[in-house]
Amino acid sequence: MSAELWLLTGLAGFAAGLLDSIVGGGGLILTPAMLNLHPGLNILQTIATQRTSSLLGTSVAAWNYFRHLTVERRIVLPALFAALAASAVGVQFAKRIEPDVLKLVVLSVCVVLAIYTVLRKDLGTREQRRFAPRREAVAAALVGGACGFYNGLIGPGTGTLLVFAFVSVIGLDFLKSSAVSKSTNVAADLSSWAVLAASGFVQWALAVPLIVGNMLGSYVGSRLAIRQGDRFIRLLFLGVVLALVARIGWDLLRQ
């Protein structure tokens, strides 16, 4: 791989990590970039190599958030473990469902998220806890399990859905929701990545610049989110949701 291609791959990883560390949606940048920069990869090699970098980058973002924010373990841990288990189950279902059906499901979900976010002007701008402390653990496990299952079943937009779910279901603000979603997303990605890596789909020569770029982008993005606060995250969240709607809608129209 040439030095120029190595650099462009790293820059794509940086941009994806920057976006993903704030509201998710890094795949909107990274997947098209990888397909254009490395057309010789098949889809499983592309997913496995991207996920290698996103796992490490998202871990950096989670570490950075939790250095500056305090989120109760009764929310973080149940969501994390439920996502880990449910993602493995979702992968098994994905093998039996028509891909176009999955895209329609994602499109419908994203349209609902966009409308709800626009109508609820105060969504995520401050904490509005909806459960007593004892019930928050159950609610967090349900959120982690549902989004983890979605991650294994479909994949794209999981980070964005996690942010929305922790805001709308648990009542966290956008900043804390971004923090919890990072650790939950790492857990959801881990099981599917392990299967792909064990099967030899990770292209390590490409993964190295992606890892470097994604980890740096995730650090910068999480710092930016902490500094700018909830309103900035809300606007970026809405932009990512609309971009997801446009991308999936275009894919369906082309087919």
Descriptive keywords:
single chain; 10 helices; 255 residues; mainly alpha; globular
Structure notes:
This protein has 255 residues and is mainly alpha-helical. The chain has helices spanning 3-23, 27-37, 43-68, 73-94, 99-119, 133-153, 158-170, 174-198, 204-228, 230-254. The protein is globular. The model has no long low-confidence stretch (mean pLDDT 84).
How far is the N terminus from the C terminus? 33 Å
What percentage of amino acids are in beta strands?
Answer: under 5%
Show unreliable segments: none
The helix fraction, in percent, is: over 70%
Q: Please give the radius of gyration in angstroms.
A: 17 Å
Strand count: 0
The ordered H/E elements are HHHHHHHHHH
What oligomeric state do the depicted chains represent? single chain
Shape: globular
Question: Count the helices. How many?
Answer: 10
Sequence-ordered SSE layout with sheet pairings:
Blueprint: H1 3-23, H2 27-37, H3 43-68, H4 73-94, H5 99-119, H6 133-153, H7 158-170, H8 174-198, H9 204-228, H10 230-254
Helix pairs in contact: 1-2, 1-3, 1-9, 3-8, 3-9, 4-6, 4-8, 5-10, 6-7, 6-8, 7-8
